[in-house]
Amino acid sequence: MFGQIVIGPPGCGKTTYCAGMSQYFTLLGRPHKIINLDPGNDIHDNENYECAVDISDLVCLENVQEELNLGPNGAMMYCLEYLEANLDWLKEKLEPFEKECFLIFDLPGQVELFNLHESLKNIIGVMQNEWHYRVVTVHLVDGHLCADPWKYVAALMLSLSTMLHLETPHVNVLSKVDLMDKYGELAFNLEFYTEVQDLSYLAEYLNSDPKFKEYNKLTNSIMEIIEDFGLVRFTAMSIEDFDSVNRVCQLCDKSIGYSPEFHKNLKTQQERGSSSSSSAHPAVGPASYFKSGVIPERDWDPRRAYSKMPAEPISASNLDITERFFNSVKISEDDDDGAEDGAGEGKDEIKKEAVEK
Ligand SMILES: Nc1nc2c(ncn2[C@@H]2O[C@H](COP(=O)(O)OP(=O)(O)O)[C@@H](O)[C@H]2O)c(=O)[nH]1
Ligand SMILES: [Mg+2]
């Protein structure tokens, strides 16, 4: 089973992302299901959001608040702990879709849940190690944080600590970039915020503010930590922009090794009408999320989404390099087995290149 785990602070667009990605998958013909693990999600009025599993069927947030006399944050923690203690329930619910569908998990926005608290980490651990799911974490961060360099630094630290805490493949996304114009002129261009390459410029900018003079050393140290780990990159996305959703999807697929071929046999079966797929695969509705004018037709070839690689920053080319490295490792294993073919020299070159990189 392959899936995306969608996390991020409240209001960053997780539920909208799940609905948008679902619409995108429908356009591609990729069988999928949304799994709502946020008991606080108000999804009943959202016609674009159709979840196959809803945590509210297991535990009700309002009841927890009332009966245990907890505040909203405490009750949310309790709900996730309750889910962790009842993973059999989740497994049973997911089983019918495991082989057939790509899963999109919608999570609550409480930052501590994916940053400090153990329940989500443990749940993901069971998914990966016991259920053998291959999942990628999609961490959404609201693009408006770029408008304030201090908030941006906080977002960088949050992304880094989440990556280290959850230990899953990770795609960090700057969401709602269509709204960037509204926040006035940015201190740096958008690539600076997405690439997270040289933070000394940002440190300089922050240190130039006399109000924060006494924190200069702290600022420099924070930048060094983020740079030394070298893990955080962002991909800019607006849910109504088809290309940006496509780019996020490609990055996610690469990070878990998902290929559309995986569900191809099933799709062929569905097209032949040999399975009762009509409810699993709703007809494409009005593509309200994709206003960019590049809405594919119904018989659009999904492979086009994978071959048309848009210009993508370093984060994507890093993935290419990793991929080539693993290919070369595979080749060297084949060589050890004494396998011989005419392309031997070419392979050696690739191997050398990968080692140099
Ligand atoms: N302009 C714009 N608004 C968005 C985008 N994604 C989400 N939103 C809006 O952000 C608000 C919060 O989104 P929601 O999905 O409920 O956030 P969640 O709390 O993280 O699940 C909603 O009003 C969405 O319509 C986007 O890409 N662009
Ligand atoms: Mg939500």
Automatic annotation (TrEMBL):
This is GPN-loop GTPase 2. Residues 333-343 have a biased composition (Acidic residues). The lineage of its organism: Eukaryota, Viridiplantae, Chlorophyta, Mamiellophyceae, Mamiellales. Belongs to the GPN-loop GTPase family. Residues 266-290, 330-357 are annotated as: Disordered. SUPFAM superfamilies: P-loop containing nucleoside triphosphate hydrolases. GO terms for molecular function: GTP binding; GTPase activity. Binds to RNA polymerase II (RNAPII). It comes from the Eukaryota. Small GTPase required for proper localization of RNA polymerase II and III (RNAPII and RNAPIII). May act at an RNAP assembly step prior to nuclear import. Residues 344-357 have a biased composition (Basic and acidic residues). GO terms for cellular component: cytoplasm.
